[in-house]
Amino acid sequence: VHPLIISSKMDFSQNNLFGYIEDLQELTIIERPVRRSLKTPEEIERLTVDEELNDIERAVYLLSSGQDIQGTSVVANLPVLMQQNPAETLRRVLPKIREVLHVAGVEMQLTAAVAFLTIQQEESVSIHTYSHSFLHIILQNLEHRDAGVSNAWLETLLAVIEVLPKETIRHEILNPLVSKAQLSQTLQSRLVSCKILGKLANKFETHIIKREILPLVKSLCQDVEYEVRSCMCRQLEHIAQGIGTELTKNVVLPELVELARDEGSSVRLAAFETLVNLLEMFDADDRSQTVLPLVKSFCEKSFKVDESILVSLSFHLGKLCNGLYGIFTPEQHLRFLEFYKKLCTLGLQQENGHNDNQIQLQTLEQEKKYISVRKNCAYNFPAMIVFVDPKNFHLELYSTFFCLCHDPEVPVRYTMAIGLYEVAKLLDSGVYVIHKELVTLLQDDSLEVLDALISHLPEILELMTTGGENSGSESKLLTVPDLIPALTTAEQRAATSLKWRTHEKLLQKYACLPHIISSDQIYYRFLHRMLTIIMTNNVLPVQKAAARTLCVYLRYNRKQEQRHEVIQKLIEQLGQGKSYWNRLRFLDTCEFIMELFSKSFFCKYFFLPVLELTHDPVANVRMKLCYLLPKVKSTLKVPTDKHLLQQLELCIRKLLCQEKDKDVLTIVKRTVLELDRMEISVDAFQKRFYENDLLDQEKEREEQLLLEMEQLEKEKQQNEGRSTSISDKIFEKKRKFFVFVGSCKEGKKSKLVRSQSFSTQALHPKYGNIDKCSNKSSATGYTSSIPGVGKGSMLPFSDDSFRTRSTNISGNAVFSSTAPLATSSRNTANSVDQKNNGTKDSHSRKMSL
Predict the structure, then answer these.
(1) I need a labelling partner for 359 at 20 to 30 A (CA). Which of 286, 403, 493, 806 fits?
(2) What letter would DSSP give residue 574?
């Protein structure tokens, strides 16, 4: 019953009120027949089954005297009965099902086909028993008058043929097929025979196929009905794979040539697609003398005579051009390329000026076809780059690439966005040519296009940054002026849409930006935006993605002042924020900090702010903190962090004594037991913690080295006259550091990558070595590359990719404690000034290692 819609202008005066009451009474009258349509006592009695019957007896009873829906339920439950009691099911239930299926409706027939297939897949009985009990029922229902039912039983039979013995197939299926495929049989029977023949071609030896199957195939290829000829034509691919190259050339190819000239358009289409799929089985002579003329004929007729083949031709054109590449003359090569270009713009321009009614009626039908053609051309674009050679891309295909990226239809641009990564890989050192189209797709009006593009955005940007996988010369990211606005625009559009998954995915992919653009550009254009998303967005996965990406930006930030500001905002605006939701996100951010940064960094800046949340007034915050405490404890080292350990124990005691919320108290008790079982690592290496300690030491060394390099860079800028000597000091310090890290990684080679920091210009992070770098006198720092990633490797930017990047110079130096940040007591052991404390602490870690 539809709800009564009350208009805003309804009059509730006394005169009109009774009219509304009458309308409500009419609604109650409408509901009365619904109540009366319930089952009568007689019907309920007829549907009731004795509860004392077992499963087999109940199934037999329902199949004998129950209604159709009850019988369908029994058939659907047949696989379970076969598992529980196969002997009784075969003896009592299956004969009843065979009787019922003769008069059963469509629903029961479809259910039985699925149930029989399930029994075979679950191997409830041996294949001999299955063929004896179930195969005859399947064959009897193959020619059901309903096409859907017939196809369902056919799918079951084709799956069963895979496991049947050869003798059973020959006697039960192949021998009856001779009569079933005759012209005197029904159309449905001949169509079924075609599909069965295609399946049987791989089950017998060549001489049996040649003697018993190929005559039937030839007969069905000459059938009077075009549906049969088309169906048999599509099975020729499977038959060719079964009979081998020689028989394919002598038997199958002539049939395909004849079918390609058939009067039925569906038959010609089937012949064309089969030819393309069998291209590899033909030798050069067959391709040049037989296949190529046919393909040329298809292409010529597709526009003027037979437009039905146009969509299929555009889909297979890439495979076709590369398959026939070796036999093309230069003129034919150019002709096929021009044909592809014509398809790429099909429907975008009027071929004549007529505007009569007939053309208007055809336009709607043709428009969908033309969109499919251009979409297929976009799908085949990487194959066409191979066809023309990537070196000729700019001359031959760039204009077409431009048109497809700016196509008015979303499916075309979506397909181009999906394939852009393949295009970039093929272009290699010439990838800079397509940077404008990358920006265009980033700014596309459709979020579907953006979602398709960002799937491989880190890899595309990496290729553009390095100038291709095999580029031997240095190149800079020329797209920065256009790329950064495009990236920010894409994020804002995703944020204002309702598709939060696209927004989350985009934020995750933006974690690659420290390897693409400079630290200052990230700081001013992206980092503060991530903090805003954490504080204002309403979708939790989006907030977490932004928090992780922010931590990555902080790790690779190159300026100490900027790092201090971000840490201060995280503590004040999230950790000490008024909203409990922000405080929960602060704990999420701290998890990412512990994952990406060294233990000393977390303890110095975030340990005490996290413990302060034990006094939070909101139970959910305290509960989340309790779950996090084991990870927090794992960041401590004794005896250096003994005081912090005491603070942690004190907070846990307070929670045990003062916590009033029973749920939080339960989690606190569980956490206490887990904390008691944990072992705290010590300053010196321990065998059981060796890998984790080594990774943490490397992170800490990177943080310390970045701070020292930044200090030397400042000295270099202040003493430009002595730049050479300062540079030598930088190179010597880095050389010693990288030699040390290389020995710790037990043979893992570390290359050097030019840093993108210390300036607002985006520099290209090209992999090199120290000898090459020492010749540079510019104000540029250096970082080590990711282990195992060379010029020809792709850089993974997944969520976990930054864990193993232990030899990168991270953007989280051991910050000077002069900033007004709440730091822990890790560096308060001596009463010296805080700056010297930081140096001594790092020095002690070097000595302990």
Answers:
(1) 403
(2) I
